[in-house]
Q: What sequence folds into this?
């Protein structure tokens, strides 16, 4: 296999990778800005310079030439080379800043140039604390600056489009944003204008940067030149925790980070998963996070003597159990949820089975024609595949409406859904029956007619598994804390937080903004136990382990296997 | 002082007969050009039995023709980098962007002998199986573009360009493209981006144009003057060409001489002329009898030479390299004793600052910084440390960028300071912050 020597260490490689890419994959840090694994290589930032050479070969004998000590003589390129554009070849010898003073100096020099006209307004910059320029300047840059002239002034506060703002002065002209629109999203809505040191990206005349993926340029901008209109100036990077998970509102399960401060979700950014979403997120998937913060219930409640009263969790469990006890199995309609995890739906199926009801149905959320051929899907629910693989099916509206109207259904048990808003039933129709409701937000239109309502943990407050439209099973982790923490949540939260015990900036352990809700894998076993069904698992992980081993449609989907990037499940006959 | 007589590499230049710009009235007209034997080289290449594509390329290679666009690369060798013919189109670019300050010789060819350029292109196209040639001319040359378009049309009408040229099965097209006006468009890959309708950002190389050129297709690029030499090589033979002027840089050369000489202009002579012959003989000496102070041999980016450095120096790449400069485009800037070298450098630095495409960091940031510092010194506000910073910045720019513009910007700074340091120091000393310390009022 071909070999490369980097900083005196030998590595084997296959194919013809770019040197910088190879180094990134092997934990050899080289500072860089313009390179992006998914885009063309303009080699314009000049930060990634390294010294490169090849062993000298004797023309006649084709043998390597050796020096007096018997070491091969290396013929170095006369100029330093940009590692991002360097094709690796067998025998290549590379020196980074670690083993070559000239390389270290070149990197330092380049940072001096980059900072010369940079406004250095880190104290008010959204990117500060999470900024490649800042980080690399600290690590590899010069101590001070010799630049003593007026900095170049460029337009600031430019509204490129409805969601993205530009500060022209912070831009280091890496062209990543422009390349994104020309090579990835193909909207071509950005270009570089002006020349030389006055350069900055802008929309062509008459064009608005409003493509549905525009916010990705904020993620890939190596400085704070591109900011989110929604997020800018709302929090500093170090005030937030950043937890890997998946987005909602799409069946693609695009990977993301949730940025949380004081138990409030502040923003969502893309997380790389080449099998699912690559490096990208749709704008809609980033901006739908307010539902996790706003209009959340204060706690469980129920109707008592005609009035809605709040109750404690035990009271709510008891009421739900009582309602279930009061009807026969075929009088209950269980509605599961394509928004809920595999684990929660699985437990609901067990409960339905225990009381003699038919299997839960789920409400589909397909909006035909609303998707694209990229990350926005027609199906707006996260887990329809998971439901199908469990053996659940979309609700047959005509049948259940007729049964409800005829009085055959006496109790509707709804988990994490809103049958009124989705048009399955009207609120009036539901007034004639009892309703048990697990729900996320007080805007839930079924909530007013529920007899007992249990606030449910959302995808950012729970642990569970979701299967995307391609059969990719992925775990979610608690991103923010809820009021009553249990052991499983505590363990996972600890692992996903950078600051395990909260900081003065992010008081996540304080009560503020914690919602009084519970995951389905807590509430359903509680209700089940009151009906003499033991659904107490050690953790959601144990639930999934059982599903994985008993249902071939989930074969391979253990928590360990899913890890951070998920596991691809085998195709099954069902597609949504 | 006794002067040692040095032989010019140009030999007996006074007997030289012009071939690129012969003194023929209305030579730009197709009928006149043909009467002078024009297009006979193309005819013999296409219809005679002496030539095939490879032998044409070999002849150009052995003639020793080196690129006249600045880098002086062997033209035939460059042609041989083209990959074998396949189903893809293949392009040739004729670089008429001519933007380096001090350079104005391609314009003469476009005006007075456009058909020689076309013929050279057609022969090159035959040799490399080119589908289409783009003549990229700087936008400011609007008049010459129009002029050439008229002549090109005549050549098309005569069947010298286009389908089945001269009745053979060889077809190739020529397109004249008007540049959008930036110095950087003359850099080869930037020119190609510009042709494609994109922003003229030079490409990172490799891949080189032969592998990935215009629209990603195999492409060769040559300067106008380079291509104009080709019909001469075919007509009169590679040996004839190789015998003209400097051995390692053979052929006729257009010297564009400007500045403080009595008769500035474009002169055709063999390569390897003595600089002193060009200044004192060809250009009839210094204006107003002034003393020579400095010469920039080949366009503003080539390192400046002091008057005392040019004795016995010939205008060819090897001779100039030996004294620490370059032939570049052969555009000589001559400066007399009254020239303020700091001001000259300030003007040159302003040019490169203005023309940096801004793609890569050292050039984008460095060119402006250089101009700022030189301006500071020129304004009498500089100190000695600024000279050190200037040299440091040159080091930080040279050889670390996508294209050679950063080098072109750094060299004048480095060498003008190096060769005229006392002038810079004098301006620094006069400065009120000459100590190099910050003064607090
Ligand atoms: C910044 C820059 C500007 C250039 N401008 C020109 C130009 O105006 N005309 C030209 O012929 N070559 C120019 N060149 C050189 C070209 O890149 C290229 O080397 C040349 O056209 C090749 O032709 P030749 O081999 O026939 O000389 C420039 C190079 C650089 C780096
Ligand atoms: S705005 Fe950001 S991504 Fe775009 S070119 Fe400037 S630094 Fe690069
Ligand atoms: S060296 Fe200057 S002109 Fe050349 S690509 Fe870089 S920024 Fe542009
Ligand atoms: S990452 Fe290599 S030049 Fe920018």
A:
């Amino acid at each position: 296999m071909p070999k490369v020597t980097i900083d005196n260490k030998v590595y084997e490689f296959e194919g013809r990778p770019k040197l910088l890419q190879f180094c990134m994959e092997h934990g050899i840090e080289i500072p860089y800005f313009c390179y992006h694994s998914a885009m063309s290589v303009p080699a314009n930032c000049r930060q990634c310079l390294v010294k490169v050479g090849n062993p000298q070969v004797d023309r006649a004998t084709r043998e390597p030439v050796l020096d007096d000590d018997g070491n091969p003589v290396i013929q170095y390129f006369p100029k330093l080379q940009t590692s991002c554009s360097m094709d690796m070849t067998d025998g290549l010898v590379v020196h980074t800043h670690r083993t070559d003073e000239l390389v270290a100096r070149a990197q330092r020099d380049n940072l001096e140039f980059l900072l010369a006209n940079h406004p250095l307004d880190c104290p008010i910059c959204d990117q500060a604390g999470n900024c490649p320029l800042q980080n690399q300047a600290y690590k590899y840059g010069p101590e001070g600056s010799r630049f003593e002239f007026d900095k170049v002034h460029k337009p600031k506060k430019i509204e490129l489009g409805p969601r993205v703002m530009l500060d022209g002065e912070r831009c280091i002209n890496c062209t990543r944003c422009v390349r994104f629109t020309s090579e990835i999203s193909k909207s071509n809505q950005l270009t570089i204008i002006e020349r030389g040191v006055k350069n900055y990206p802008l929309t062509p005349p008459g064009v608005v940067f409003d493509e549905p993926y525009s916010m990705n340029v904020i993620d890939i901008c190596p400085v704070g030149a591109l900011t989110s209109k929604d997020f800018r100036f709302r929090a500093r990077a170090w005030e937030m925790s950043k937890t890997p998970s998946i987005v909602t509102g799409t069946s693609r399960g695009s990977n993301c980070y949730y940025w949380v401060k004081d138990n409030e979700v502040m923003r969502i950014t893309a997380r790389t998963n080449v099998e699912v979403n690559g490096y990208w997120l749709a704008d809609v998937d980033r901006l739908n996070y307010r539902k996790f913060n706003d209009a959340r219930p204060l706690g469980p409640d129920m109707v008592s003597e005609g009035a809605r009263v709040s109750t404690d969790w035990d009271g709510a469990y008891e009421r739900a159990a009582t309602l279930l006890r009061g009807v026969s199995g075929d009088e209950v309609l269980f509605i599961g949820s394509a928004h809920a995890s595999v684990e929660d739906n699985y437990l609901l199926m067990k409960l339905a089975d225990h009381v003699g009801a038919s299997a839960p149905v789920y409400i589909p959320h397909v909006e035909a024609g609303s998707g694209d051929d990229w990350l926005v899907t027609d199906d707006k629910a996260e887990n329809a595949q998971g439901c199908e693989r469990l053996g659940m099916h979309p609700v047959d509206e005509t049948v259940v409406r007729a049964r409800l109207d005829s009085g055959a259904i006496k109790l509707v048990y709804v988990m994490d859904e809103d049958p009124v808003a989705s048009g399955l039933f009207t609120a009036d129709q539901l007034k004639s029956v009892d309703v048990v409701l697990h729900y996320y937000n007080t805007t839930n239109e079924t909530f007013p007619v529920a007899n007992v309502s249990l606030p449910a943990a959302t995808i950012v407050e729970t642990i569970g598994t979701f299967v995307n439209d391609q059969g990719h099973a992925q775990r979610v982790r608690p991103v923010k804390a809820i009021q009553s923490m249990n052991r499983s949540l505590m363990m996972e939260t600890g692992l996903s937080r950078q600051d395990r015990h909260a900081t003065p900036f992010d008081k996540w352990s304080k009560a503020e903004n914690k919602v009084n809700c519970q995951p389905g894998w807590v509430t359903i076993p509680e209700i089940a136990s009151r009906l003499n069904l033991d659904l107490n698992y050690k953790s959601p992980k144990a639930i999934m382990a059982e599903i994985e081993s008993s249902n071939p449609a989930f074969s391979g989907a253990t928590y360990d296997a899913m890890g951070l990037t998920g596991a691809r499940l085998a195709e099954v006959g069902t597609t949504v | 002082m006794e002067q040692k007589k040095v032989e010019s590499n140009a030999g007996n230049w006074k007997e030289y007969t012009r071939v690129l710009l012969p003194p023929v009235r209305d030579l730009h007209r197709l009928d006149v050009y043909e009467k002078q034997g024009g297009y006979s080289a193309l005819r013999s290449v296409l219809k005679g039995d002496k030539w095939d594509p490879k032998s044409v390329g070999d002849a150009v290679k052995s003639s020793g023709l080196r690129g006249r666009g600045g880098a002086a690369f062997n033209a035939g060798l460059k042609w041989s980098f083209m990959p074998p013919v396949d189903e893809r189109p293949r392009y040739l670019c004729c670089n008429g962007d001519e933007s380096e300050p001090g350079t104005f010789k391609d314009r003469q060819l476009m005006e007075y002998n456009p058909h020689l350029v076309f013929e050279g292109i057609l022969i090159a196209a035959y040799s490399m199986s080119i589908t289409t040639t783009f003549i990229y001319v700087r936008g400011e040359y609007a008049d010459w573009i129009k002029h050439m378009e008229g002549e090109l049309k005549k050549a098309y009408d005569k069947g010298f360009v286009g389908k089945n040229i001269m009745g053979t099965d060889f077809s190739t097209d020529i397109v004249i493209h008007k540049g959008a006006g930036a110095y950087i468009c003359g850099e080869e890959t930037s020119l190609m981006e510009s042709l494609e309708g994109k922003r003229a950002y030079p490409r990172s190389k490799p891949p080189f144009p032969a592998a990935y050129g215009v629209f990603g297709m195999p492409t060769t690029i040559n300067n106008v003057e380079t291509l104009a030499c080709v019909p001469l090589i075919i007509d009169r033979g590679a040996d004839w060409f190789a015998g003209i002027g400097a051995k390692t840089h053979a052929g006729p050369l257009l010297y564009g001489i400007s500045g403080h000489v009595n008769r500035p202009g474009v002169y055709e002579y063999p390569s390897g002329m003595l600089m002193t012959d060009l200044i004192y003989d060809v250009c009839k000496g210094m204006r107003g009898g002034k003393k020579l102070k400095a010469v920039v041999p080949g366009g503003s980016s080539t390192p400046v030479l002091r008057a005392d450095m040019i004795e016995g120096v010939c205008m060819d790449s090897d001779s100039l390299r030996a004294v620490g400069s370059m032939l570049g485009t052969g555009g000589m800037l001559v400066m007399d004793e009254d020239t303020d070298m700091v001001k000259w450098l300030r003007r040159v630095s302003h040019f490169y600052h203005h023309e940096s495409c801004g793609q890569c960091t050292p050039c984008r940031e460095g060119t402006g910084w250089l101009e700022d510092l030189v301006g500071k010194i020129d304004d009498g506000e500089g100190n000695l440390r600024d000279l050190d910073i200037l040299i440091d910045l040159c080091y930080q720019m040279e050889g670390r960028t996508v294209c050679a513009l950063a080098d072109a910007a750094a060299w004048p700074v480095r060498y003008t300071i190096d060769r005229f340091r006392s002038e810079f120091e004098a301006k620094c000393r006069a400065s009120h912050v000459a100590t190099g310390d910050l003064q607090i009022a």
User: Anything to note?
Assistant: Chain B touches chain A at residues 182, 199, 201, 203-204, 206, 353-362, 364-369, 372, 376, 389, 395-396, 399-402 (CB under 8 Å).
